[in-house]
Each structure stands twice: as C-alpha cells, then as structure tokens.
Here is the input.
Amino acid sequence: MLVESLVVSGMIFVIGTLGVIVRRNAIVMFLCIELQLNAVNLTFVALSRYVGIEGQVFVFFVMTVAAAEAAVGLAIIISIFRHYETVDVDKFNLLKW
Amino acid sequence: MLNALAYESWALHALIWLPFVGMVHVLWAAEERAKHLALRWSLVVFVLSIGLWWAYDPALGGGYQLVSSRSWIAAWGVNYALGIDGISLFMVLLTTFTTPLAILGAFNYIKKRQKPFYALMLLLEVGVVGVFSATDLFLFYVFFELTLVPMYFIIGIWGGERRIYAAIKFFLYTAVGSLLMLVGILYIYVRGKVLLGVASFAFVDLLQIPLTTGEQMWLFGAFALAFAIKVPLFPFHTWLPDAHVEAPTPGSVVLAAVLLKMGTYGFVRFLLPFFPVAVRHPTVVGIMLALGVIGIIYAAWVAAVQPDAKKLVAYTSVAHMGFVVIGVFALNLNGLQGGLLVMISHGISTGALFLLLGMLYERRHTRAIDEFGGIGRVAPWLATAFVITALTSIGLPGTSGFVGEFLALIGVFEDHPGVGIFATSGVIFAAYYMLPMVQSVFFNALEKPENRAVQDLSRRELIILTPMIALMIVIGVHPTPLLRRTEPSAQMVIDRVWESVQLGEAIIEVDPSTDLGAAETDDPVGTATAADGAE
Amino acid sequence: MQADGLEPAAAEWEPILPALIILLPLLGFAINGALALSAARKSADAVRAGGEFDFFEGGRARTHALPTWVGPGVMLLAFLLTLVNFISMLGAELHDPWVHAYWAWISTGELEIAAAIQLDQLSMIMMMIITGVGFLIHVFSVGYMQDDPGYPRYFAYLNLFVFFMLVLVMGASYPIMFIGWEGVGLCSYLLIGFWFSDEAKASAGKKAFIVNRIGDLGFLLAIFLIYLVFQEVDYVAVLSDAESIFVYGGPAITTVTLLFLLAATGKSAQIPLYVWLPDAMAGPTPVSALIHAATMVTAGVYLVARSSVLFALAPLSSAMVAGIGVLTALFAATIALKQQDIKKVLAYSTVSQLGFMFLGVGVGAYTAGVFHLMTHAFFKGLLFLGAGAVIHSMHHALHHTHKDWDAQDMRNMGGLKKYMPITWVTMWLATLAIAGIWPFAGFFSKDEIIWMTGAMAGAENAPYPMLYTVYWILALAAAMLTAFYMARLMFMTFHGPNRTGAAEAEHLHEAPRTMWIPLAVLATLSVFGGWINVSEDLRESVLGGFGLLPMGEWLHHWLEPVTEAAHRVQESRLGEVAHSAPFGGGEVAWGIISFVAALAVVLATVRLLGRSEVPVAVEDTEPTGFARILYNKWYVDEFYHRWVVDPVLTTSRILWRVVDATIIDGTVKLVGNGARAIGWVASLFQTGQVNRYAFLMTLGVLVILSMIAF
Here is the structure.
C-alpha cells in the first residue's frame, strides 16, 4: 500500500507543481497549491503507519494552515481583482524591483 | 528607609520596566497628553534611580550588587539577570537623569506624531538601562540591539532633511559591528560549554573560561569593532556627525549622552575583563592608544572648521571619547577612573550643548554658525548657559570636564608618557574649536534682524539647564564621592587585566573537536533567536 | 592628609578665617552675577524691541546701584582679613607653611589631591598685592565703569577673577594652582571681551585664551611628570623632597622646569607667547591694570618663585628663564618705543617688565623677582589707572562733540596736565618709578635684578658666565629703553600743546574722586614701596641715606623660609656670587650709574620731544624704515598668522574635506555601495512573475534532490 500511496501523492504533487508554473490564472494557481499540500498530506498519512502518529498530527496542522491560507489568499486575489479586474498573475509584477 | 522598602530587590527591575509601562501608557493616551505623560514616567524612573546612589555600597567591594537572576531560556542557560557595580551605577544614573531632560527638551521641538515619539524615547530608556544593568551576555545583547530600533525611528521620522540617509547609516553601521560581536558572543558561549561544561551567558561564568591568547585576540577584535563603532573611535566615526546633524534635539541628546557610552562601557565591561591577555598585549594597547589620540586631535581639528554648529559638537564628541579610550587603555586605575569620569561629564556637558543648540534652532531654524552673531545681547541667559557648558566641555578646572581628562591623562602619562604628551595637546585644540564657535554665535555685532528677535530662555528651558549646569560644577568641585563609588569596580577590572596571567596557554591542547561539532548544531538556532529578540 | 605631617607648624600659628578670604570675592561674584543676569534680561528685552535699556533713567536701577558696594566691599573685607593675617604672621616667625585641607578634591587609588590652601610668606605677599591693589582697582572701576550698561557683569567678572587669583596663590598643590591658573585665564577672556559686540575685542579675548592654553599644556605636563616622579603633587611634599629625588641638572628636573617655563611664558606673556597681551588691551582699562599688569600676568613669576628649588636644581632651565626674560624685556621695550596707543605702550611695557621679573627669578634672585613683581603691581597698576583716567576724560570730551578720533591715541592728546593735574603728578611718580629713578620703588627692585644678573655672571661656579654677562648688558639696555618710552608717553600725553581740539578741550576734566584716590594711594606705594627691600650695601651707602632707610632687606628675610632651599642648592653648587659686576664696580656704583643714566634719558627725551611737533593721528604719516618695523611690532603677529594659524586652519580643512569626507566616509560609502551593486545584479533575476519564481524554485529543488540522490 505504501508504494501506491506514494506514487499517487507524487503524481498529485507534480500536477500541482506544473499547474503553479504553467497557469497564469491566480485562482487556478491557488488550487494547484492546495493540490501540492494535499499530496504532502497523503504522504504523511501513508508514512505515519510505519513511522508513528506524528505524521497524522502534522496533517492536521497542514490542513489548518491551508484553511487559513485559503482565506487570506482568496481575500488577496479578490482585492487584486477589484483593483485590476483581472486575475492574470503576469499583470502583477509590482514586487519587481 | 531603602531597606524597609526592600529597594534593592526591585529597583533595577523597576528602572527597566517602568519606562516600558510608561511607553504603553503613552501609546494609549491622547496625543496631546503624550509629552506630559512621558515626562512624568521618566521622572518617576529618575526619582527611583536616585536611591541607587545609596543602595550601592562601595565598601562591599567592586562586585555586582542589587543582583537578581531568573531563568529565561533555560535550554541555553540564558538568564534574565540584573545587577550593577560602580561602573554601571553611574551609567544608569546618567541615563535616567538625561532622559527626562531630553523629553522636556522635546516639548517645543516635536510637533508632529508626538505619541510615537515619546513612546520611542521611553523604549530607548528601557534598552539603555537594560544594557547597563544586564549581567547576562545574552540579555545584554538583546538590550544592546533594542536601543538601535527607537533611535533609528527617532532619527528617521523626526530628523532633518537627510534623515533617512542618516538613520540608515546609523543603523547599518552599528548593526554590522554588533553582528560581529554576536559571533564572538556565541563563540565564547560554545567554548564555555565545551571547556567548563556549563551552558551559561552569565558574566561570572564566562569570565572563568580559559581562552587561549589567539582566541582572545580574535574575540577582542570582534568585540572591539562593535564597541569602537558605537563609541565612535576614529576611524569609525563618520556615522556620528551625520546622525547628530539630522537627529532631532532630544535624539541627539540621548545619542551623545548615553548611547555613545554603551561603546566605552563595553570596553570596560567586556574587553578588559574578558580578554585580559589580548588587552595588555603591547600591540593592542598601542593601536587603541593611537586611535584614541588620533581621535582627540583629529576630531578637534575637523570640528574647528565645521560651519554647522551641531556637526561641530558631534566631532567634539569623538574627541572626548578619545580621552575615554586612552584612559581605559592606559590600563591603570587613574586612567580608568578618568575615563569613567569623562564619560559622565561628557554625557552631561554634550547633552547640554545639544539641548542649547536645539534651543537656538527652535528660535532661528538654522544651525549654521555664520547665521548667528551677537546672540549674547538678546539672550544673555542662554549665552551664559552655553558658555559655562562650553567651558565644561573644553575641560576648564573646576568643572566636571577637567577632572576626568586630568585623571585620564595622568593615567596615560604614567605608563605611556609619549602618548600622554600628544593627548594633552587636546586641551589647546579644545579651545581652538570651541571658542571661535562661541564667539561667532554669541558675541560679535548683532547685525542680522532675525537674530535680534531671538528670545531668551523660557522657564521650561531654564528647568532643563539648571540641573545640568549644577552637576557640571558640583562634579568639578567635588568628584570624590563619584570616584569612591567607581574605584572598587575599576580596581577589580584593572586587577583582572594584570593578574590573569597566561590563562590560555595551558589549555591549547584540550581541543575536543567532536564536542565542538556537537555544539555547532546549537549555533544557528542561537543566532536566529538572538536576532529575533533584538529586532 | 598633608596637614597631618605639619601639625607642629600649624600649632605655632593659626590664620584667622583664611577660607573666608577666598570666599568673599566668590560671594561678590554670586551677588553681582545674579544682578548682572537680571540686568541683562531687561537689556535684552529692550534690544529686541530695537532700542537700549536705560538703567539710569529716573535714578540708578538697583542692579546698577548694588555692585558699587558689593564689588569693592567684598574686596575691602578680603583685604582687611588678609591684613590681619599678615600682621599676625609677621609676629609668628613661621618657618613651615600653614596647610589646611578642606576636602578631598580628586581622590582615587594612590592619587590624593586635597582641596587645600597653603599660607606662607610668599602667598601672603601675593595675597596682600591681590587684595590690596585689587581693592583699589575695584574702587577706581566704580568711577570708570559706572555708566556702562554691563556694570554688574563687570564687577561679577572682576570678583570672580580675584577669587581665582587667590586660589592660584593660596592653593597648596600644583593642581589647585592650576584651577586658579585657568580660572584667571577664563576671567581674562571674559573681561578682554567684555564689550563682546565688538568683534575685535571678542577676538582678542579668544586669542588670549587659546594662547594661554598653549602654556597650560606645559603646566599640565609638568604636573604629570611631577606626579610620575613623586607620586605627590602638593608643594610641601614635592619641594621638600626635590633635592633628594632629583639629580642636579638631570633630565627629569630640567624637563619639569622647562614645562613650567612654557606655562609661565603663556600666562606671563613672555616670548614666544606674549602676543596675546597687547591685544588684551581691548578690555576695560581697570582690567588691564588689575589682570594684565598687577596680578594675573605675574602668575608665571609666582610659579617660578614657588618652585624655586626645582629651578635652582636645573641650571639650564634657569638660564632659559633668565634668557627668555631678558630677551622679552628688550624686545618688548623696542616695540613700545614706537606705539601710539597709550595702552599699547603700557602693554609692551608690562611685557618688558615681566621680562625683568623672569630675569630675576632666572638668575636665582627669587626675592628680587617677587620684589619687582610687587613694585610693578604698584606703579604699573597706577600707570594703567592713570591711562584709564586719561582715556575716560578723552572719551567724554570726544563724545561731547561726536568727534570720531581715537581716544587712546597719544597723538590726539598733549597738554593734558592742565586739565588733569592729579593724574599728571601721580603718573609722573609711577614713570619715575618704572624708569628706575632713585629713590622710587622701581629703582630698588629693578636694580637688584640687574645687579644679581651681573653677580651671577661672576659667580664662582656659574654655569654659563658669558651668557649671564650678555644678559646683564641686555638688561641694562632694556632699562634705558624703559626710561625713554615712558618719558615719551608722559610727554605726548601731558605736555606740549593740546591737540584734542579747542571744542573738545573744554570737556576735558580731572577724574572723579573714586578714580583719583586709588591713583594717589598707588602713587604713595610707588614712591615708598621699594624701601622694604633695600640691599645692605645700598642701605649703607648714599643711596640708602647711610642706613636711614628703615627696612633693609626685609622682603629678603621675610621670604627666606620659602626660598632657603633654593638658596641652599645655589650656594652648594654655584658657590659665592660675585661682589662686583662683570666690568668691575660694586652694587652701589652700578646703582648710581644706572639711575643717573635713566634720569639722563628721561630728561633728554623730554627735551628732545619738546622741540618736535607731534601731528595728530589722522594727519600722521606712516612711519618708515626701522621705525616702521617697530611700529608693526616686528611683524610677529603676521608671522604667527602665516606660519601657525593659517597652516593649522588649512590642515583642519584638508582633514575635514579630504580625509574625513572623502577617504574615511568614502570607504564607508564604498562598502555600502558595493553591497548595493551586488544586490542590483541579483535583482536582475527578479522579474515579478510568480510563475517564473515557482519554476526556478522547482528547478532548484530538483537539482538538490538529484545531488542527494546521485
């Protein structure tokens, strides 16, 4: 079971990573980050069976953080949308020096 | 009476945390009440601190008194440990004395954003009192860095035209030095853990560590650089004129009176006792004395041609601190005592000079010496106060300035007559930079109509200046009570320097690399936390 | 601490309230200072409003009425107290000094400097001069300064000066003396620049302070060196151990004494640091009389006399002291020949006379030096006060008609004897005294110095006999020049036709009573003051009325306890001093020769000048040739400006602009800019595109992973 779980989580992680890199839509990128997080969660759960219960504890941490992040992230995106009426990240290069 | 109140057990804690409470109070209160609140809080702190004069008993020897210690970060052996000896006693008193006066001096100067300003002034007091009363190196470092933050904002927000430049220069310059010191601190800590098996930052524990000569040299370098920048010692002084010129009056006052003393205090508190072998090394002594003497003469000459009065006084600070440095590195009792007294005297006189220049600035909105002239006719009390302060600054006998310089010079002369001769020539150059300024500002004809409108001292300004001038003269006439209180501690430092013979050499072979490797894993954590605590 | 060792001596004689002598002037300073501050406040308000406050409108304001009583009053009390102590000391046969420590001034470790005062014969003489002459000058000042808006401030400074001067002479150790030493310098600074709105005057004060500080450097270093050798700095310990600790003529003692000499040249206006004194005439004239003639400038002489043992142990330094003294005496006298400003003449005359005192203490005639110091305080104080009276009168006269002539230029005076008879007579007495005419005070003191110089040249083991012979000749020449320039001053001021102008002459008047009474008292002292120390040889001769003069060598005996150690050293080392001058002749013969010559010079000068026409200042032509050099004071000020002041200023500017701003701060900025440059390069990688960051990050993770994996 471990191998299968890890393979699945790896695939999800790669999909998420590619999504973050390739897509321009902020919301899609955001979803992809969630994918990455969940892939990690899956790994934790899978490994916790062999290593110890800490892995599952960490999953709860990650989920909590992810929830908070989702709230903040969406708020930022909405706020940006109100200003620029777009969610295309290529347009947001204010962080550039 | 002090005993009945158990003064000794809570005094130092109160001195550190009352300004903090005051800061919170100021931030909570209404904008227009901020200055009065800040003044009251700082006055409470000052009144409380007066008791230290009696609470500290020099007859008990030069060690720390009013000691208290609580575990703070047990895992690393960090303690919240306070205590004062004869050296820090006067630094604490100087701080608590100067702060209310600086705050009072800000009343007319600071017009915008008063609340944060006064809150930062109180925070500064927290930091400085903490620096002078900490007996734990980690705690010391936290406070040391804490002082940077309020000063940075005070210069950066309420300063003159080039305030951002000056604030950043001040911050970066001093931070670079103190980061080097942090590395040194961690090294000592790790060595202590390895060699003594004690994880502790307490001064008393760290003093036990047998460091080799080579180690002492390196550590001396790291610490000395940090403090030399703070002092500032030639050639690390260029941040000071910029910071002083741009800082608002109260900022300059605290900067000159107290913050610079943290550097020389560091010399006395750390360099001399912690690295005695390095300190008494002829090359090291030679370099430090040379830098001190160059500072005295060079800064005096540069000061003499400054068109900006505040910059002039800033350079004189460098010269005065040169006297402190040569006094300290004379490595004898007279020199060290003199250095300490110059620190106190400079705190009062230069603080007063900056306050006076601030008063002139409030009236004329310029600091250029050429813009003034004949002020003595329209503001005779201001002129009188300025002349007395200037004379103290140039070390006229009978004022506090003389006693310190005299002792420092006599100390240097005892062991290094050649250096003493050059340093003594500073008395000529002091007159050479100060008197022309006094003349151009207060004497000469009253030609400019703007100068004719200058008002004399107000009641508030009089209240600020009177205690300072009184102290200058009282210390000048009867410095012995001060000297008696500093003497045992100064003697201890000197004994430590000369009696800790060849501590390091035998220890060289003990070099358990495995333990060191284990200890190193603690290192990055320590760095991160220390930096967090400071910022 | 020091007092303990002297218990027996202290038991013999107890002074009466000695501290009060010091404290009285300080009290006067406090009261007058408070009045001055309050007056200044009123005046400042008026200035701001665009006018001047009139303190005299509707009667004298209280701030201007009280100082009249407080200023001279405290001085009178101090003088009386000193007098009482002096008289009680006269009958005490005091051998060891009376020392009393009031509190520990600086005390740390081994170093103990007590705030102690020492009373002995030397300090007593000095105190008598300071409080006595000081009191007279305070009284004179009441008349001279009464209408000045800064009247209370003036008395505050003057009282403060006396306080510091008393500290200087009463202190029991070198550091305490140094307090007074710098303190009088401060008061001199404040009083020279008393009319500080005038830039020239304020600058003169500043110059005095800075030049004096050069000397003070020597004083400080000498104290340090003494401490290094003795671990003590008080007179009793240092002076009594000096003979046993120092090697005669050794490097240590020579250095100490040369450093003291440097200090003394500053305070006492000797070559090379005399330049501040002529400029110091910018102050009010009574100040010139008190500070720059009678008391402060003699501090250097006092210092040498006080340390007489040290100087006796250092023959080279003593020769230097004498050499500098005699050169200054001659040099300043030449400048005085061609000055037109009455105060400038007197200033250079003071420098010259101080040179004589240095010569005296330099040849080991410490008593003679102090003696001349005392008589000089009388006659030069008188001359300055007289000049003050003249200037006062001239000023009023010129002020009446709004003539913008210089009230101090002697070319504008002439014939004043008609208008100011008392001033005229008293000043002539002082002139005769300073010129060394028998039997006035200056004759005996100056003659003793010159005689001792000649005797030193012929001493058995004199270290530099030729040198002392040269000194002796130069001193005689300087004495003759003195007679000349003083006679010229008197003639141009008081004799000949009046050149002030007819309208102005009507307003010339004799000085008020507060001013001429001090003149009269000082004139009496100038006449008889020299009789207290007539040497035995002179006293037995015609010059002493064949023993009629009552107090032969009194001062000599009086100061014996202070100078005996020095004399002991001298006798053991130099042997018997000669009884004849280098070219033969005893003291009496040379005394007669010198006074006849001086008298001849005075008479000749008056006769010669009587025939020549003196043009008024505005019509006078620039002097030419050698006179021009003398008129321009040998261009010494210009020389100093060119070779000392300007280079220092230039160097300072270079240090600031080049070293500080460019090199040091440049390096600092270079570090900062370097960091910034690296940051800029790195910032090129920052595009602001989140995807690109994510891609690079992933790439990085992959690279690291692959590194770990393979």
Residues 69 and 238 of chain C are 42 Å apart (CA to CA). Chain C is about 70% helix and 5% strand. The first strand of chain C starts at residue 98 and ends at 108.
